[in-house]
C-alpha cells in the first residue's frame, strides 16, 4: 500500500514539474514572438500608440521536450566556447516551434490611429511571424483609449457673426426682392387661372378703339385678335422630338406599314401636310425610311412643295405633323391588334402551361406537330421538351414529314383542340403531383430532418426517393451536375464548410466534387478529409448540404435546366411561354 502511495505521489510531482517546464517554454516562445511583432509594429506605429499580448499553445510532447533540453545542454557544456553574448535559447528554439500548435496575437491600438492601419497590421504580422489561419493562428486588433493619448478637445460653441449695418442692408434688399417675386408670381397665376378675363379685356379694348375712331372695325379683325389667345389657352403642348422618334421607330420596325400610311394620307388627305412631315424628318431620312412610297405619291409631294407660298409658321408645321402622325399611329395600332388573330392557334398559345399540358397529353402526335408548326421557336422547344420520350420522337417525326398543310387539316386540328378545351373546362382534372408536395414538405423541415428523411427513403423506400430526386436536388446527385455549375457554386464556400459537407462521404464522390475547385483549395479539403482533423457538427453538415443543393438549383433554373433531366442523364434546355 505504501509503495502505491509513493508511486502516485511521485507521478503527481513529475506532472507538476513537467507542466511547469511547459509554462517556461511557452513563455520563452511568447517572448520571441512578442519581440518580432514589436519590431514589425515599430516600423509603422509609435510605441505609445499600441500594446501587444501574445498567447501560444504547445503540444505536450515529452519526446520533443527532451530533445530540446538535450540540445540546450550541449550548447552550454562546460568549456564550450560561445561566440559573442550568450544566446537565450539558440538553435534549440526550432524544437519549440515544432511543438507550437496555435498562436493568438492581440494588438490594442489607440483610438487616434488611422482605421486603415488595422488591415496593414494584420497582413504584416501574418507575413512576418509566418502565421497560418488554417492551423488556428489569429491576429486580433482592438481599440481603447490609452493613457498616452491626448485629451479630447471640447467643442467650442458656435458664435453667430455680428450683424453690422452692411448685413442689415443686405437682409432688407433680399426681403424686398423676395416679396416682389412673390407678388409677380401671384399676379401671373391669377391671370393664368382666368383666361376669359383676358379675352374680355381684349374685347373691351377693341370696343374702346371703335368708340374713339368713330367707326366700327370688321368682325374678322376682332376674331383674328381673339383666336390666338384662345388657341394659346386651349391647345396642349406638342412634343415634336418625341413624335419624331416614335415615327422613326415605327418605320424601322414596319417599313411597309409606315410607307402605306404615308401614301394613303398623301393621295387621299393632304399632300401639303405630308410634305411638311418630310421636311420635319429630313428628305434624306424620309427617302431612307419610307422605301415603299410609290412614284405617284412622291410626285404629289413635289407638287405640294412647288405650290407652297411663303414661309410656313411653327403652328402650321406642328398641325401638319400631328395629322400625318395620327394616320401612321392608327395603322400601327390596327396592325398590332390584328396580329394576334392571324395565328389560328393563338387561343392555345395564350393558355397557361398547366392547361396546355393537359390538352397535349390527350392529343395525337400529328395534331401536336401542326401546333408546333404554327408556334414560335421558343414555344415549340417548350412543348416538345414537356413531352415524354416516346411521344416526343413521334412528334418530331411528324414535323419532319410535313410538306403541305391544307386548310381543312388545320381546321380539323383546331376543332380537336377546341373540343379538348371544352371537355377540360366541363370536367376539370386538377393535376396533383405527390412528389412535388412531398418535396415542399421536406424543404419546410430543418436541414437535419431532411438529411435523416432522405437516408430513410434510401434504405426503406427507394421508389419514393427516385420520384423525389426528379423534383429537388439531393446531395448525392451532385456528382451528376455539370462541372461548370459546380465550380460556380462551390467556389463561394470556405474550406471548413466544404469539409463539413463532404465529411464521411465516399472518396469517389468527393474527388468528383473537389475536381471542380481550384487546385490549392481542393488539396486542403482533401487533406482534411483524409486525416479527419475534426468531427464537424451534424447541424452544420446538414445546413451546408441543403444550401449547396439550393444554390445549384438556382443556377440550373437560370440556365433553364431541369433536375429530373440530371437523373435521366439528358440535360436539355427548357423555356416557358
Observed structural traits:
5 domains; single chain; three-stranded mixed beta sheet; 3 strands; 28 helices; 577 residues; mainly alpha; disordered C terminus
What does this structure look like?
With 577 residues, the chain is mainly alpha-helical. The chain folds into 5 domains: 2-77 and 88-144, no CATH class; 165-234, no CATH class; 240-339, no CATH class; 346-426; 469-568, Flagellar motor switch protein FliG, alpha-alpha superhelical domain (Annexin V, domain 1), CATH 1.10.220.30. It has 28 helices and 3 strands. The protein has a 3-stranded mixed sheet with strand order 1-2-3. Helix 10 crosses helix 12. The radius of gyration is 45 Å and the shape is flat. One of its GO terms (cellular component) is bacterial-type flagellum. InterPro entries: Flg_Motor_Flig (IPR000090), Flg_Motor_Flig_C (IPR023087), FliG_a-hlx (IPR011002), FliG_M (IPR032779).
Amino acid at each position: 500500500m505504501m509503495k502505491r502511495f509513493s508511486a502516485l505521489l511521485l507521478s503527481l510531482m513529475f506532472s507538476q514539474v513537467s507542466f511547469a517546464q511547459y509554462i517556461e517554454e511557452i513563455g520563452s516562445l511568447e517572448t520571441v514572438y512578442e519581440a518580432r511583432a514589436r519590431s514589425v509594429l515599430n516600423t509603422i506605429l509609435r510605441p505609445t500608440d499600441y500594446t501587444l499580448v501574445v498567447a501560444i499553445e504547445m503540444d505536450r510532447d515529452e519526446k520533443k521536450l527532451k530533445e530540446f533540453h538535450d540540445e540546450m545542454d550541449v550548447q552550454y557544456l562546460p568549456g564550450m566556447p560561445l561566440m559573442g553574448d550568450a544566446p537565450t535559447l539558440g538553435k534549440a528554439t526550432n524544437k519549440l516551434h515544432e511543438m507550437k500548435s496555435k498562436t493568438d496575437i492581440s494588438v490594442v491600438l489607440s483610438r487616434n490611429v488611422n482605421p486603415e492601419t488595422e488591415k496593414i497590421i494584420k497582413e504584416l504580422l501574418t507575413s512576418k511571424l509566418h502565421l497560418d489561419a488554417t492551423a488556428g493562428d489569429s491576429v486580433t486588433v482592438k481599440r481603447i483609449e490609452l493613457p498616452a493619448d491626448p485629451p479630447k478637445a471640447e467643442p467650442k460653441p458656435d458664435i453667430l457673426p455680428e450683424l453690422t449695418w452692411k448685413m442689415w442692408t443686405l437682409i432688407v434688399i433680399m426681403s424686398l426682392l423676395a416679396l416682389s417675386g412673390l407678388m409677380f408670381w401671384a399676379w401671373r397665376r391669377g391671370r393664368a387661372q382666368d383666361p376669359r378675363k383676358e379675352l374680355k379685356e381684349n374685347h373691351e379694348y377693341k370696343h374702346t378703339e371703335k368708340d374713339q375712331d368713330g367707326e366700327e372695325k370688321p368682325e374678322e379683325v376682332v376674331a383674328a385678335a381673339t383666336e390666338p389667345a384662345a388657341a394659346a389657352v386651349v391647345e396642349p403642348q406638342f412634343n415634336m422630338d418625341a413624335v419624331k422618334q416614335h415615327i422613326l421607330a415605327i418605320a424601322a420596325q414596319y417599313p411597309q406599314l409606315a410607307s402605306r400610311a404615308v401614301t394613303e394620307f398623301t393621295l387621299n388627305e393632304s399632300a401639303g401636310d405630308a410634305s411638311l412631315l418630310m421636311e420635319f424628318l429630313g428628305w434624306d431620312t424620309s427617302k431612307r425610311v419610307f422605301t415603299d412610297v410609290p412614284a405617284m405619291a412622291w410626285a404629289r409631294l413635289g407638287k405640294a412643295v412647288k405650290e407652297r407660298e411663303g414661309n410656313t409658321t411653327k403652328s402650321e408645321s406642328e398641325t401638319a405633323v400631328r395629322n400625318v402622325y395620327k394616320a401612321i399611329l392608327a395603322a400601327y395600332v390596327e396592325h398590332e391588334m390584328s396580329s394576334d388573330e392571324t395565328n389560328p392557334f393563338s387561343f392555345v398559345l395564350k393558355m397557361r402551361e398547366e392547361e396546355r399540358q393537359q390538352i397535349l397529353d390527350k392529343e395525337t402526335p400529328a395534331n401536336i406537330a401542326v401546333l408546333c408548326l404554327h408556334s414560335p421557336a421558343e414555344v415549340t422547344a417548350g412543348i416538345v421538351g414537356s413531352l415524354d420520350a416516346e411521344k416526343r420522337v413521334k412528334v418530331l417525326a411528324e414535323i419532319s414529314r410535313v410538306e403541305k398543310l391544307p386548310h381543312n387539316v388545320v381546321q380539323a386540328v383546331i376543332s380537336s383542340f377546341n373540343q379538348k378545351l371544352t371537355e377540360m373546362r366541363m370536367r376539370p382534372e386538377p393535376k396533383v403531383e405527390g412528389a412535388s408536395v412531398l418535396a415542399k414538405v421536406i424543404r419546410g423541415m430543418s436541414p437535419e430532418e431532411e438529411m435523416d428523411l432522405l437516408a430513410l427513403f434510401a434504405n426503406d423506400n427507394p421508389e419514393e426517393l427516385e420520384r423525389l430526386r426528379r423534383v429537388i436536388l439531393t446531395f448525392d446527385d451532385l456528382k451528376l451536375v455539370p462541372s461548370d455549375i459546380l465550380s460556380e457554386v462551390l467556389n463561394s464556400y470556405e474550406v471548413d464548410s466544404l469539409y463539413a459537407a463532404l465529411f464521411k462521404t465516399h472518396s469517389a464522390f468527393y474527388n468528383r466534387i473537389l475536381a471542380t475547385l481550384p487546385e490549392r483549395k481542393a488539396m486542403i479539403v482533401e487533406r482534411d478529409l483524409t486525416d479527419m482533423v475534426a468531427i464537424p457538427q451534424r447541424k452544420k453538415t446538414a445546413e451546408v448540404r441543403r444550401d449547396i443543393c439550393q444554390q445549384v438549383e438556382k443556377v440550373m433554373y437560370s440556365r433553364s435546366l431541369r433536375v429530373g433531366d440530371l437523373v435521366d442523364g439528358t440535360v436539355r434546355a427548357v423555356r416557358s411561354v
